[in-house]
Amino acid sequence: MAGLKYQAPRGTFDVLPAAARTRGRIEETAAAIFARAGYEPISTPSFEDTELFERGVGHSTDIVRKEMFTFEDKGGRSLTLRPEGTAPICRAYVEHGMQQLAQPVKLSYRGPFFRHERPQAGRYRQFHQIGVEAIGTESPLADAEAIGLFAELVAELGVPGVELRLGSLGSLAARQAYLDELKAHLRANEGDLSKEVRERIDANPLRAFDSDDEGTQAAMASAPKLVERLEGEDAEHFEEVRALLDAAGVEYAIDPTLVRGLDYYTRTIFSFVCDRLGAQSEIGGGGRYDGLIEQLGGRPTPAVGWAAGIERIALALEEEEAPAGRDVFVATAGEERSRQALAMVLAGELRKAGLSAEVDLGGRGLKGQLKHADRIGARRVLILEEAGAAQLRDMKSGEQRPVDTDNLIAEITEGES
Ligand code: AMP
After folding, report:
1. Among 75, 128, 267, 302, which is most buried by a count of CB atoms within 10 Å?
2. 284 C-alpha vs ligand 1 centroid, how far in Å?
3. 255 CA distance to ligand 1 centroid (A)?
């Protein structure tokens, strides 16, 4: 593309109509699934106070340390383009007193998110997520329902090669003892760890499980695993989530090394991966975040949710949705203004009746209009002739018959049933 003066910024992309159709199908399928299960749409601003993410997502995460698009507004406030959706939704939950509503408050969202990551296939600086949150319940049923909705979405869309990985981080309090044990293991193996992991032994030891460094991976193979250390209510909660998924026939694999890139998770975490994708194989994931709302100044409120990447799902589907085609192209034989006006009026009537209809906007002669109609996939062409006469042409068979434009809808629908 050398020589082009303007291009979409690094890590961003244009969604052209063919891709937009696939994305539309993903979004509409998700919206229908969410609505049927009572998850109501919410949308929050594209940017928030920087502190919301620092506190919510966590100071030691990659997102906050390296990936946020942060800027100062003209009033000197530090703002950040949202890198994720859960902290803003929890902010909205507290701000609008949603704890007064019937609990749990079940919400769904979709929209653009921003992370300053190194771009590669499936990883962008502006990407789009769809997601759900169930706020105000500790019940393992909510975890199982959330996971079930994701599984339903994947099944309904027909995403191939998807696998669900499941883990648990335990509650924040119970995790402390484990983290001490893990830090001791990391220190004992410090020589094998990558520089980045070594520097974050205290700040974020769990992320060592996520490292793609070979030495670190070898050291982590013998590390103590949190799922194997769960006790009391944490163990029971996880057991219950698993039993519910088993009962619902949702397949999963327990992954003792599963961690997520955001600090707010507690207890259940999960990740849906797709074997059709390369390095960025996760199409979505989430978990429970029982401490987040309290951390943002609300009352202690348990919650669970997930987000999926629309681009990743589209990549996994690898399809190009065929254009919808046009029901009728209204062509004019001759260029009089009155005939063009009639074409517009009739196209309007067809559209009101639920058919797709287009007129020529290119100043073509009749022959050119028929060619154009064929190119855009019109099934029929209505040709307006002299003195109010009209013909309806079936583009597939080439057959043409006179029609009465005063009775157009009936002519079109009846003639073909
Ligand atoms: P997260 O919010 O990090 O839990 O990510 C949830 C999902 O969002 C991932 O599984 C991806 O599908 C998608 N995602 C996250 N970051 C990116 C990115 N930089 N580019 C594209 N998709 C992303």
Report:
1. 267
2. 7
3. 19
Specify the ligand 1 atom closest to the Cα of 85: 2
User: What is the mean pLDDT of each successive set of 10 residues along the chain, which is 417 residues long?
Assistant: 85 94 96 98 98 94 94 98 98 97 98 97 97 98 98 97 96 87 93 92 89 91 91 96 97 93 91 92 97 95 98 90 85 88 95 95 94 95 91 94 92 71
Q: Is the CB of 282 under 6 A from ligand 1?
A: yes
Phi and psi torsions of 369, nearest 5°: -65, -40
Question: Which residue is associated with the tokens 């203004």?
Answer: 337
27-59 as b/e: b if 16+ CB within 10 A: eebbeebbeebebeebebeebbebebbbbbbbe
How many angstroms separate the CA atoms of 101 and 99, rounded?
A: 5
Task: Produce one character per residue of 347-374: b if its CB has 16 or more CB atoms within 10 Å, e if not.
Answer: beebeeeebebbbbeeebebeebbebbe
Phi, psi values for residue 306, rounded to 5° = -150, 165
| 114 within 8 A of 81, measured Cβ to Cβ | yes
How many whole angstroms from 123 Cα to the centroid of ligand 1? 8
Contacts 24+ apart (CB under 8 A), 281-287: 282/309, 282/312, 283/154, 283/159, 283/162, 283/308, 283/309, 283/312, 283/313, 283/316, 284/129, 284/131, 284/150, 284/308, 284/309, 284/312, 284/313, 285/260, 286/131, 286/146, 286/260, 287/143, 287/169, 287/260
Give CA angle at 356 (352, 359), nearest 5°. 100
Atom of ligand 1 nearest to the CA of 271: 10
Contact by Cβ (8 Å): 384, 333: yes
pLDDT of residue 335: 79
Nearest-atom number in ligand 1 for the CA of 272 is 10
**Bridge partners of 380?**
328, 394
φ, ψ of residue 393 to 5 degrees: the values are -110, 130
Whether the ω angle into residue 104 lies within 30 degrees of 0, i.e. cis, is yes
Sign of CA dihedral 381, 387, 388, 389: negative
CB of residue 306 inside a 6 A radius of ligand 1? no
**What does the pLDDT read at residue 2?**
62
The full length of the chain comes to 417
Q: Whose CA is nearest to atom 3 of ligand 1?
A: 261
